[in-house]
Amino acid sequence: MTRLGFFGPAGTFTEAALRTVPQAEGAELVPLATVPATLDAVRTGEVEAGFVPLENSVEGSVSATLDELAAGQPLVVTREVLLPVRFVLAARPGTRLEDVRTIGTHGHAEAQTRRTVAALVPGAAVVAAFSTAGAAAAVSAGEAGLDAAICARVAAERYGLDVLAEDIGDNSAAVTRFVLVALPSSPAAPTGHDKTSLVAFIHDDHPGALLEILEEFAVRGVNLTRIESRPTGAGIGAYCFSLDAEGHVTEARVGEALMGLRRVCDDVRYLGSYERADAVPPTVRRGTADDDFAEARAWLARVREGTAT
Amino acid sequence: MTRLGFFGPAGTFTEAALRTVPQAEGAELVPLATVPATLDAVRTGEVEAGFVPLENSVEGSVSATLDELAAGQPLVVTREVLLPVRFVLAARPGTRLEDVRTIGTHGHAEAQTRRTVAALVPGAAVVAAFSTAGAAAAVSAGEAGLDAAICARVAAERYGLDVLAEDIGDNSAAVTRFVLVALPSSPAAPTGHDKTSLVAFIHDDHPGALLEILEEFAVRGVNLTRIESRPTGAGIGAYCFSLDAEGHVTEARVGEALMGLRRVCDDVRYLGSYERADAVPPTVRRGTADDDFAEARAWLARVREGTAT
Amino acid sequence: MTRLGFFGPAGTFTEAALRTVPQAEGAELVPLATVPATLDAVRTGEVEAGFVPLENSVEGSVSATLDELAAGQPLVVTREVLLPVRFVLAARPGTRLEDVRTIGTHGHAEAQTRRTVAALVPGAAVVAAFSTAGAAAAVSAGEAGLDAAICARVAAERYGLDVLAEDIGDNSAAVTRFVLVALPSSPAAPTGHDKTSLVAFIHDDHPGALLEILEEFAVRGVNLTRIESRPTGAGIGAYCFSLDAEGHVTEARVGEALMGLRRVCDDVRYLGSYERADAVPPTVRRGTADDDFAEARAWLARVREGTAT
Amino acid sequence: MTRLGFFGPAGTFTEAALRTVPQAEGAELVPLATVPATLDAVRTGEVEAGFVPLENSVEGSVSATLDELAAGQPLVVTREVLLPVRFVLAARPGTRLEDVRTIGTHGHAEAQTRRTVAALVPGAAVVAAFSTAGAAAAVSAGEAGLDAAICARVAAERYGLDVLAEDIGDNSAAVTRFVLVALPSSPAAPTGHDKTSLVAFIHDDHPGALLEILEEFAVRGVNLTRIESRPTGAGIGAYCFSLDAEGHVTEARVGEALMGLRRVCDDVRYLGSYERADAVPPTVRRGTADDDFAEARAWLARVREGTAT
């Protein structure tokens, strides 16, 4: 039976997102305590893949995911999931809204629901949990004096809680991005709307290096959809760049851009090519389709042979 | 009396960092519950300045800071502080290490001290708090069955706790970056090692926009020390870029780069020029010092008058 | 009376082009023996302006014009003229085509009319003259045994010759570009379709300098319409770049690009802003109009004062 | 016997340059009347190679060479020659300097020797010839009333003239660049100091095209040593760029840059890879040597297979 790890515990938004992935059907879903622990379980083979937040997480640190993927034994992203974050207020069956005095949740969830919750249950105290699901579990178990939890719907269901109020986020729900991560392997075939993730480590004696990196992409017509500088921990001014590029590693323009990076950077870590969750196809600039690369290669061969006309 | 707000509660790493700032001396330090609340208190004038984490925070979401500064009423950074994060294990006086059964702390702190704590007090349970300082306060008050807290030294001192173990982070301590934020005003004079923070909003019909933005800096010889793409919330593919650039807004090369951004971007938000905490001076490329700009401007005037020789 | 010098003698294509210039009306047109002599006459004040070929000349070396403008006392272009080159075969009145045995002309004109002339007057010998007009003068004077000249219509008229055949160029007539050159002065007001000429001397320790130069233009949205690298004579690998840019020196985007060049180059020589003979207006990219520069400057002033909103 | 054509007649600077080429030894050297005629003789197979001026010619139009190579049946440069231009004043044996009344030469040579000749033989008239060698031949034959010729030393020798004065150029001698041109074939092996010539035709709807072209070179670390925009004759604003790049077409960085050009340009014409006459080796930027390309290609293969570590 396939085992998939995820940044747990059970009932978090991460699990909710994981359940939308086809591989999760029929698989054993293994909650793990932290993002590093989840990725390490993939590295050791304890699980076949790991599921972690990559952008705008409600719980847990996205920086941790970026930094863990950039270091240690290589891993690759094989799938991404975008999940609109919707909080519910959940309580044991029979609890009425007006009975709620003490609410448990994760700190980030607390920050994102404060105004709505204050209007809904004025005077209620909100106390900390390591996760929204942990709060739901505590409510279910009658622990810690909690009357209700701010959590994902999936947590309410898992712990047998009733939903007292839906969609209690203060803002129109943000979207969180999660990724499924596995040991390196040949990527899935291109779908026509793929993304490739990378970490580029620049030479430390090189001030204009970011522009240089971007030109490797630009000159091959490859657009970026995310960029983030991260300190490498190797001292002040030592940076790496975490990047998402449009396109699939088997496409010629992406491949040449990657080779260009490899040549000019101190190191490049490939983090996978995978289907875009939003299914947006790339803009392919004139002259940068696979056919254009093939035609140019054939022409160069003729030039080198002296048979170009 | 000056009032400075900070992302609280009292006793957090944020307060520890704030106490290193000269303005904090003799000021009233006002803990505020969230990053948005801290910034809003600056906007309303409730406090004169607000102190929040900007990179690699132990507690609280750095994304929240970036996104809050990018929207709403403008604010500017007036100072940055770099603080090495060092955790202590703290307990009420008289508690011995072997007595510790239950430890409170923030989730991120828990993740960063897990191995060391497990070796130090095998079998102890770690429970969640909204902040490391909140855990210390609870220990001090004898609440929640906590024997000890993982927190900053400043929290131990504030709540009268003894330090049972120093520097219990699993990794060599990371550095967290904090900023002091105020209402817009004329920036402090350049120190020779300054940084300027910005948010650039690109036109949404513009795929190569990031490269265009970077070229506005590169062509004036302005290096970037941080870059991060952030979704603007205005739909898929709508991004802004949060940037730190070397140099001070009153320097000619920085000013011209900012004007260039202003012209090519949909919007640019200036977030302040301030002294670099690490005191690293910028690399000023040939032809980009203030004198070079002044000389070129004088030359152009002569050209336009027909008196250039 | 205004005196205008031109690369002579009288009756050349250069004179024909000069006669299309309004300033030439009522002026004394002074033929000068070479391009350098023409430019020197401007420098010494012997003539008020000089008229020389700049691209695709039939007679005389265009390189000479470029190199002479790049060195010595500065001069500026105040007008350009585009002239389609049309050759005629001209002879003394009474001469019939079948009587033509010996034809005089300039070497370049000979090369451009060879096939047509061979078909028209098979067996005729073509002999060299320093200019097409010199050949016409010699025919008129009955010198050098010449029966006919290959020359401009203006030369036939000036020397009282009949035109035996029109438009005898082998190819569809190329266009030659001429410029009127004067001592530096404030340029004429912009017309909305102007060009600015420059010579940029790069620092000799700088291999990527050409790209750097072009980026100074590109980042301000200034297109180039001509570029030519020229050895400076200061040794192998010492180059300058002769450039024509769209726009007028009083326009903000052109001015800022020029200042940028001035800062990054070893030297920049401004060669004038003047109306385009083809009246093609520039493409002004979003964010690069004068209003955009003014708005950005006002914004920067507010940012520096702390009053930007 | 090998036949090499050259832009004649015999005795010109072009022939002098050709005689420095190893292939010329023992070959039949065929003077041809014009640059186009020389190139056409190569195209028809009448000669095996043609020798023409490419930069700073004393006689003949360099533009003609550039434009002829850019159009018609493709040809490639197989060798370049740099020749310092040194003029002599030559006369029939027995002629003394004070006897010289009438001097024949090419117009460009006349312009470059005027001051020296005026000082040397005050009052002498200078009359036009189609070439410096033609003038020497006429002097030798006692034609056209010529007492002396301004020509190359090789012409004096060929026509049995004595040299009355050496090195009579007004300026320190400029260098002229000539090229040997042949039908396309596989290029000679790289020497370590090679040059590659090209013509790039841009898409006419593309204002920033020049920068795009240069970035194709820059991103692969290929420096340019010459660039010249040329109208294509296809209407206003239709340009091509004539370029010389450092390096050899069989080198990886040059090959990839050429393929890049091929993809983004409307057309690219390869004009040969050949040894630099000045033997200056290219600057090879970090990451752009052949080994770097090979290593990157191998890495990409491993990435695509999922075996990169």
Description:
The structure is a homotetramer of 309-residue chains. Helices cover 30% and strands 28% of the residues of chain A. In chain A, α7 (209-218) packs antiparallel against α8. The first copy, chain A, is elongated. In chain A, the strands form three sheets. A five-stranded mixed beta sheet of chain A has the order 2-1-3-10-4. The model of chain A has no long low-confidence stretch (mean pLDDT 90). Chain A is an alpha/beta fold and 309 residues long. Chain A starts with a strand and ends with a helix. Chains A and B meet through α3, α4, α7 and β12 of A and α3, α4, α7 and β12 of B.
Comma- or semicolon-separated keywords:
homotetramer, 309 residues, alpha/beta, five-stranded mixed beta sheet, 9 helices, 14 strands, elongated
Topology of helices and strands:
The structure is a homotetramer of 309-residue chains.
Chain A: E1 3-7, H1 13-18, E2 28-32, H2 35-44, E3 49-55, H3 62-70, E4 76-84, E5 88-91, E6 102-105, H4 107-120, E7 125-128, H5 132-141, E8 148-151, H6 153-158, E9 162-165, E10 175-182, E11 194-201, H7 209-218, E12 224-231, E13 239-246, H8 252-264, E14 267-275, H9 290-305
Parallel strand pairs in A: 1-2, 1-3, 6-7, 6-8
Antiparallel strand pairs in A: 3-10, 4-10, 5-8, 5-9, 11-13, 11-14, 12-13
